[in-house]
Amino acid sequence: MATSGVSGVNSISSIYSFNNFRSKNPNLLLGGRKVLLFNWRRRSSLWVSNVASDQKHKTKDSSSDEGFTLDVFQPDSTSVLSSIKYHAEFTPSFSPEKFELPKAYYATAESVCDTLIINWNATYDYYEKMNVKQAYYLSMEFLQGRALLNAIGNLGLTGPYADALTKLGYSLEDVARQEPDAALGNGGLGRLASCFLDSMATLNYPAWGYGLRYRYGLFKQLITKDGQEEVSENWLEMGNPWEIVRNDISYPVKFYGEVIEGADGKKEWDGGEDITAVAYDVPIPGYKTKTTINLRLWSTKLAAEAFDLRAFNNGDHAKAYDAQKKAEKICYILYPGDESLEGKTLRLKQQYTLCSASLQDIIVRFERRSGNTANWDEFPEKVAVQMNDTHPTLCIPELLRILIDVKGLSWKQAWEITQRTVAYTNHTVLPEALEKWSFTLLGELLPRHVEIIKMIDEELLLTIVAEYGTENLDLLQQKLNQMRILDNVEIPSSVLESLIKSEEGKEQAVEQKEEEGKDDSKDEETEAVKAETTEEEEETEVKKVEVEDAQAKIKRIFGTAPNGQQMVRMANLCVVSGHAVNGVAEIHSEIVKKEVFNEFYELWPEKFQNKTNGVTPRRWLSFCNPELSEIITKWTGSDDWLVNTEKLAELRKFADNEELQSEWRTAKRSNKMKIVSLIKEKTGYVVSPDAMFDVQIKRIHEYKRQLLNIFGIVYRYKKMKEMSPEERKEKFVPRVCIFGGKAFATYVQAKRIVKFITDVGATVNHDPEIGDLLKVVFVPDYNVSVAEVLIPGSELSQHISTSGMEASGTSNMKFAMNGCLLIGTLDGANVEIREEVGEDNFFLFGAQAHEIASLRKERAEGKFVPDPRFEEVKTYVRTGVFGPYNYEELIGSLEGNEGYGRADYFLVGKDFPDYIECQDKVDEAYRDQKKWTKMSILNTAGSSKFSSDRTIHQYARDIWRIEPVELP
Question: Where in the sequence is N6-(pyridoxal phosphate)lysine found (predicted)?
Answer without folding.
Answer: 814
